[in-house]
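Comment thread on ticket #2218

A.B. wrote:
> Attaching the input chain for the structure job we discussed in standup.
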Amino acid sequence: MGNPVRMFDRRAFLRALAALGVTGAAPAYTQERPRFSEAPFALGVASGYPNQNGFVIWTRLVVDPTLPGGGIDPVRVRINWEVARDDKMKDVAASGEDFLVPAWAHSTHVEVRGLEPNRPYWYRFNIGTTESPIGRTRTAPAARSVPARFRFAFASCQHYEHGYFGAYRHILADDPELIVFLGDYIYGRHATRDAVRNHGSSEPKTLSRYRVRHALYKTDPDLQAAHAAVPWVCTWDDHEVANDYAADQPEEDVPLEEWVARRLVAYKAYYEHMPLRDRMRPTADGMRIYAQMGWGDLARFFILDGRQYRTPQACPRPGSKGGSNTVDIAACPQLFSPERTMLGRRQEAWLQTALELTPARWNVIAQQTLMAQFDQQPGPGRQAWTDGWDGYPVARKRLLEFLAAKKTPNPVVIGGDTHTFYVADLKPDFDQPRSPTVASEFVGSSISSRSSWTPERVAQMLADNPHIKFADNGHRGYVRVEVTPRQWRADLRAMESVQKPEAACNTLASFVVDDGKPGPRRA
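C.D. wrote:
> Ran it. Output below, let me know if you need it in another format.
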C-alpha cells in the first residue's frame, strides 16, 4: 500500500510535520532546577522491551494530568536517571541524564545498555532533589540460553469508563517476568451505558486531547503499579486512534488530510506515554511498532501491527465509507482477493524472514485479535466479521501455510480485541475439521471493556467452529502463561467484577500445549 503522506499538498505535509513536533525551534533555555507545585511524576514510571543487556525506562513529567502540558512550564528540563542492582538504589549499575522537551510532552525513553542478563534491576529518575518512585524491571536471559521456566501475562482492551483495572493487581501477584499488551490501551468514545467512572472530556482528535486521555488512563493506580513493577512489550489496535480504522481509511467519511493528521498525533501521544524504543519514534511516514524480542532461546515474541498497513475492510456497512461489518461471505467476494493484507506486504515479509531464522523453542505471534476462523451464522452458510482475520482469509492462510511449510517450532498466536477468551487450533483449512493443526491460539478477554454479545450467543456459535476449544465472553480478565522447554501452560484468569478495583480473580480454565504437538488441550 502506498504511503498516504505522498498524497498531500506541501502545506498539508508541513502541518503534519509540525503536529509531530519535528519542525520548529527548540525551547530557548533549559531549567536546571525547575520548581514544581508538587512532584512531577503523577504518571509514575515504566520499563519495556528488555533484552539480554538492557531495557527502556520511561517517565513523563506531569503535575496535573487534566492539562495537555501536564502543568509543566514549556521549557527544556534536565532529568537524571539511575539503574541499580538493589531496591535501595545503593549499588548503581548505570546512570545518565536526558533533556525533556515540551514538543514530546516532557517524556523520556532511556535505552539502558551494558547490564547483566537475566536478573532484576531497579531504577528511578530525579530532577534536583525531586525523585520519582522506584521502578523494578529485569533483563532478558542471554542469547542461546534456555531458561528452565518463563512466566508472563498478556492483556488488552481497558475501557476506563467500563470498569477498574484491578486485574493488574492479580497479574502482579502472579509475579510475571513480562507483560505483553495487545492493544486498545485507551478508548476515545464514551460508554453507552452504566459508566463506572468518566473520561471527563470528549473523544480525542487532537494531540492535546490524546495526551490528556493517555494521562488519565495512567492515573489508574493498578495500571501504574503494573508498569512500575514489570517490563512491558506493547502493540496497539484501533482505539488508540479511532474505532475500526484501517491504515488511511477511517470509519467516518473525513478528508484524507484531516484523517492522517489525526492518526499522526495519536501515534505521537502513544509514543510519549509508553516505554518504547527510540527507533519507534513516529515520523510523518507513520510509526513502526512491529518488532521481535527473545527470551533466551526458550521463547521469541513477534509483536505485530495489524492496523497501520492493512487493506481497508471489505464490504463496509451501507452508507459507511469504512469500518467493520458482519457479512455473508457469499455476498462479499472481495474478501477472498489475494491482494488483501492484514499486515502489509513489508511487515508480512519481515515476519516470514524472522520466523525462518528463529532459534527459539516457542515462537509467539503477538497480535491484536482472534486469528481462527469464526463462523457467526449457525447452520448452513457462513458469516464473517470483516475487521478481524476473517476479513483477510487469504492473508491468514498464507501465514498458516508458511508455518506448516517451514515447520516453525511451536508457533503460538496470542490476541485480544474481542473481549472474549478463546482457545483454538489454527489450520490452513478451517473448513476441513480433520485437517492438520499447525499452531495454537489463545485470546484473552479484556481488562475492563464489555462484550457486546451474550454468553448464550457465543455458545450457540461454537457448534459451527469445532476448531475453537473454549470460548467465554462473560468475564473480564487476562491470560497467565508459564513456558518450559517441554510445555506451554495458559491459565485464563477471570475477574469476579470490574465494578470495584479490589475484586477477586479466579482461574476459569487452563490449557497446555506440549512441545512439538500443536493444538491446546485441557490441563
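A.B. wrote:
> Thanks. Noting for the ticket: Residues 1-9 have pLDDT under 50 and may be disordered.
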